[in-house]
Amino acid sequence: MKKLILFVLALILLSAATNASEGNKPLKLSGPGDQPHCFDETSRIINIGVGFGGVNYYGRWGTGYVYKSTPAFSATYEQAWPKKLGPGFLGVGAYVGFKHAQSRYDDYWFGNAYYYQHNWNHFMLAARGVYHWDVLNAKNAEVYGGVLVGFRVTTYSYKTNSTDPYINSYKRSDSGVWPVFSLFAGARWYFVPKVALFAEVGYGISYLTGGVSFKF
Asked: Nearest Cα to 181, choosing from 143, 126, 121?
């Protein structure tokens, strides 16, 4: 959490430095009638992110097991609500995420090499609502918060080359579908007019996500 706060502050300071270099004026957070917002009623944004932490992958059990996982990959689309709501703008859209995990044990017995491998694929589909408050929504940077509602799908598979007739007793039953609900907060900084860096904390396919935003 401390790292995220420092990252958010860094984004705002970088934006301030950019504004100062352009007009020799410090960044002023926008309010009604002030400078433009980086998110308003015309905005449409795609976020491409990479995250860490999150889903329970059931691995790391038993001596000799090797656990591997990919980062969490996600994409979100956000479009502004046609009319301003209260002291800010509402963005609505969709979220998709994916992560793969693997737990493998290699057994060498009297010259034979056997492996026991568990695989999990995690998919998440959800709707998101994001509120962009004017006070925290400036020309080149913003801090925002929102809610995510959807579901997570886990598929599980088991592979082995063992000839043990009882080998299927090691197979797990981890496949399933679970509902997902999360609050989240994030920050975004536009280093060029249509491209920004963003960071978010809150449960998606991961707890911490960072990446690039594209406005169109």
From this structure: 126
Q: Which of 79, 53, 13 has the alpha carbon at shortest distance from 182?
A: 53
Quick: pLDDT tens for 168-197.
667 787 899 999 999 999 999 999 999 999
Helix/strand/coil for 8: helix
pLDDT tens, position by position, 203-212? 878 999 999 9
Listed by start position, the domains of the chain span 2-215
Can you name the CATH fold of 2-215?
Porin (2.40.160)
Nearest to 97, CA basis, from 62, 61, 55: 55
- Give the Cα separation of 71 and 177 in Å (integer): 21
**Interval 46-74: pLDDT, tens:** 999 999 887 655 544 556 788 888 999 99
Q: What does the CA dihedral 216, 79, 198, 21 come to, rounded to 10 degrees?
A: 50
